[in-house]
Each structure stands twice: as C-alpha cells, then as structure tokens.
Specification:
Blueprint lengths: L2 H10 L4 H19 L3 H17 L1 H4 L5 H23 L3 H7 L18 H6 L3 H12 L4 H8 L3 H19 L2 H8 L1
Helix pairs in contact: 2-3, 3-5, 5-9, 8-9, 8-10, 9-10
Protein name: RNA polymerase sigma factor
Keywords: DNA-binding, Sigma factor, Transcription, Transcription regulation
Family: Belongs to the sigma-70 factor family. ECF subfamily.
Length: 182
C-alpha cells in the first residue's frame, strides 16, 4: 500500500466516528484473530476497543496516530482476557479440553504436512506474535509497533526478527526438512 494513500485514508477516518469505525474495525478484528484462535474473544474485544474510542472520540481526533491508540487498547484488553481465561483453567483436564488456551502446539501440522500461517503465528510467544502481526500483517511501521506494545523500537525489531525466523522454521515443508537431515 502506498504510504501517501495510507496517510490520506487514516486522516479521512477522523472525519467522524462512523468513518473511523468502518476503517479500523476490520483491521482490529484481523489483528485480534491473528493473536488468538478463540473467536469468542475477538468480536468482544474489538467492540470494547471501539466503545473506548467512541467514549474518548473528542480527545482521540487530536492524536497523531489514533489507530495506534486503538491497537494498544485492544492488545491490553486481549492480554487481560487471556490472563482471566488462564485463571479459570482450574484443572489439567480443563486445560486439555480447551487445548492449552486455544493455541496449537508448535508441531501440529495439517493433512498436507504444513502449518497454517495463522496457526503458526498463534503458536509464537506473545510478544513475538503481537509484534509480527502488527508489523508484517498490518504493515505498521516499527516505531508504531513499539509504541503500541509499550517497548523500545529495538525490542520491537528483535521480536519481529525472532518471530520471522521461527515462522520460517514452522512453515517449512516437511520434505525440505527431511532433505536437510540427510
């Protein structure tokens, strides 16, 4: 996407809350889906994030990057919901039934022997998962990723680098792995 076009679209979203909602809702929902396989949370967190934006609309329109604010709110909400879900896992049986909070194991592969991209992203450690989704899937620049996640730009770069390296390992075709072992 052209940077000028993206800047123009982002500015236009501030013309009204409905325009902001139409532009950012599919992006925030997609981001949240990349973070958890438990779809029950995605729509609720996306809606709650948008409600928070609506409540602070007069202040939000003055921000340079209101989208970054929205993603930071959604990320914080998701972390809280995930922590709450972990607390509710009261037994090993419950954790097994839930599939370890909905995350696939790193070795789980489909019938064709490959991991689905979103499953692979979900299997990453939380910080790597968040950073790679924001930077690579949603195309946020690295300074924005750092700001959204509340870390230094160097840390954000490290998380994205490690995530990409791990995704490359996870998504490599089994035949390539077998050839590498010979």
């Amino acid at each position: 996407m052209n940077a000028d076009r993206a800047d123009r679209e982002a500015r236009e979203t501030l013309s009204s809350f409905p325009a902001f909602y139409r532009y950012w809702m599919p992006r925030i929902t997609g981001y949240l889906r990349s973070q958890t396989s438990d779809g029950r949370w995605v729509e609720d967190i996306a809606q709650e994030s948008m409600l928070a934006a609506q409540r602070r609309w007069d202040e939000l329109v003055t921000y340079d990057k209101p989208g970054a604010w929205l993603f930071r709110v959604a990320t914080t909400m998701l972390r809280r919901w995930q922590a709450k879900a972990r607390e509710q896992c009261t037994s090993l049986d419950d954790m097994i039934t839930r599939g370890d909070a909905g995350l696939p194991s790193a070795g789980e592969r489909g019938t064709d022997g490959r991991l689905d991209l979103m499953d692979a992203v979900r299997s990453l450690p939380r910080r790597q998962r968040e950073a790679v989704a924001l930077h690579c899937l949603l195309e946020f620049p690295m300074p924005e990723v750092a700001r959204i996640l509340g870390m230094s730009e160097g840390s954000a770069k490290t998380h994205v680098y490690r995530a990409r390296r791990r995704l490359e390992e996870l998504l490599r075709e089994p035949a390539v792995e077998m050839e590498g072992r010979r």
